[in-house]
Amino acid sequence: MEIVLETERLILKPFADEDFEQFLKHQADEEYKKYMGGVLDYDTAVKRFALYRDFFHDKGFGFFSVFLKETNEWIGQSGVAPRATSEFGELGWAISPPFQGKGYALESIKRVIEWCFSELGWNEFYFCINPLNTPSVRLAEKLGAYNIGTEKVPEALQGHNVEIWYLKYDNN
Questions:
Q1: 159's torsion region: left (phi>0), alpha (psi -120 to 50) or beta?
Q2: Residue 129 lies in a domain
Q3: Residue 138, helix vs strand vs coil
Q4: Rg of the chain taking only CA atoms, in angstroms
Q5: Which pTM value belongs to this model?
Q6: Exposed (0-12), middle (13-18) or buried (19+): which is 39, by Cβ within 10 Å?
Q7: How far apart are CA 54 and CA 95, in angstroms?
Q8: Rounded average pLDDT over 34-55
């Protein structure tokens, strides 16, 4: 059974091979990757795509490709980070620069949170956010999350400029 999430304006689907070209294009986009560790070379992007695609297949959760419902255009990703565990439900999002500022990140991550709550039983979520990424900080605040500092930074992000935001979801 294929998992497909929908919102008023978006369709979210697990990464699939047909998403690769758009994913690859965005991994080389400096603006898109600005707060995500910088652009990726081709080989690293291929490995990252395979990780996202295979992780969802193996675990039943992960990042979703985000598409505009109206045009079916790939505009980014939103979902559960591969570092996530049931004790550290890390979520993330990234929307293509031409589509930023239109509420798509908030719309997509809200739908992912609802899905994680209903399908995985998760009600606690973490976001690893670079404090200079003010749009993501504002998004976390809109969700009701709060900054808990750097103590729970995952090992893979140690030494990076990230802070952890925490959200307790109550389905209201």
A1: left
A2: no
A3: helix
A4: 15
A5: 0.89
A6: middle
A7: 21
A8: 84
Q: How many domains does the chain have?
A: 1
- What distance in Å separates the CA atoms of residue 65 and residue 22, rounded to the nearest whole number? 10
CATH number for position 44: 3.40.630.30
Q: How many whole angstroms separate alpha carbon 159 and alpha carbon 82?
A: 19
- First-to-last alpha carbon distance for the chain, in angstroms, is 28
Contacts of 46 (CB under 8 A, 6+ apart): 24
pLDDT per residue as tens digits for the range 88-122: 788 999 999 999 999 999 999 999 999 999 999 99
Distance of CA 72 to the CA centre of its chain: 19
Q: Which domain holds residue 76?
A: 5-121
Q: Which helix (H) or strand (E) holds 87?
A: none
Give the CA distances from residue 136 to residues 4, 70, 101, 170, in Å, rounded to whole numbers and listed in that order: 24, 25, 11, 21
By C-alpha distance, which of 83, 67, 80 is closest to 9?
67
